[in-house]
Write a structure and sequence with these properties.
This protein has 202 residues and is mainly beta. Helices cover 8% and strands 52% of the residues. The strands form 3 sheets. The chain has a 7-stranded antiparallel beta sheet.
Length: 202
C-alpha cells in the first residue's frame, strides 16, 4: 500500500494544470472488497474518491490551488437528472502526497467563482435579492457572515444600528430598495451602495 501511495504522489507532483485553471477528468468506477471508488484521471494525474456523493455519470474537473498548501480542488457537476433549482456541485480536496480526495461540501450550481475557493450566489427569494458567499475553511465549505440582502418588495424588521435592542419595520420597494446585513436572522441597516451589485440584478 505504501508503494501504491508513493506512485500516486509522484504523479500528482507533476500535474501540469496551471494555477487557478481547471481541467477535465476522466472517471472510471472500481469495486474493491465490496467498496465502490471512483478513479479520476487526466493525462498525468489521478485522484481516488471513495464516496457515495458522486458517480461517473457526473462530469469532473480539477483546479490547482497554489495558495492553499498546494492542494487540488475537484468539482463534481450534477447529472442531467439532478439539475434543478437547488442543484449542487460537490467539492473535494486532494493533496500531492496522497491521491485520496476528501469530500468538503457542496455549493449551488449557479454560484460563480469570485476567488480561489470562493463562490458567490445571487438569488431572488420573495421580495428580496440575496447574496451568499461560500468559501473554504479548514477543509470544508462555510458560508460568510453577515450576508447581504436587498429588500425590493417586502417589509422587514430592521435594526438601524447593530447595537440596537429593538428593530424597526421598514418597507423596501423597487424604486427605494433597502440594503441590510443579515446574520443569524438579525438584519441591520446598511448603506444602499453596499448592495450595488444586487441593484444590477433587478
Amino acid at each position: 500500500m505504501k508503494i501504491f501511495y508513493f506512485f500516486f504522489s509522484l504523479i500528482l507532483s507533476h500535474a501540469s494544470v496551471a494555477e487557478n485553471e481547471t481541467a477535465l477528468l476522466q472517471c472510471r468506477e472500481v469495486v474493491t472488497e465490496g467498496k465502490r471508488s471512483l478513479i479520476l484521471s487526466a493525462d498525468n494525474i489521478d485522484f481516488i474518491i471513495s464516496t457515495s456523493q458522486s458517480t461517473c455519470e457526473s462530469s469532473f474537473e480539477y483546479q490547482y490551488l497554489k495558495s492553499d498548501n498546494d492542494r487540488y480542488l475537484i468539482t463534481s457537476w450534477p447529472t442531467s437528472e439532478e439539475l434543478g433549482v437547488n442543484a449542487q456541485r460537490n467539492l473535494y480536496i486532494a493533496s500531492p502526497e496522497r491521491p485520496d480526495a476528501k469530500y468538503i461540501g457542496s455549493v449551488p450550481v449557479d454560484a460563480e467563482i469570485v476567488g480561489e475557493g470562493r463562490y458567490r450566489r445571487i438569488s431572488q427569494e420573495g421580495g428580496s435579492i440575496h447574496e451568499t458567499i461560500y468559501f473554504m475553511r479548514d477543509a470544508q465549505i462555510d458560508i460568510e457572515k453577515p450576508s447581504k440582502e436587498l429588500v425590493i418588495a417586502n417589509t422587514e424588521c430592521i435594526y438601524l444600528q447593530g447595537s440596537d435592542s429593538e428593530c424597526q419595520r421598514m418597507t423596501g420597494t423597487f424604486e427605494n430598495p433597502i440594503c441590510v446585513y443579515s446574520h443569524d436572522g438579525k438584519k441591520s441597516l446598511a448603506d444602499v451602495s453596499s448592495c450595488s451589485e444586487l441593484l444590477n440584478f433587478q
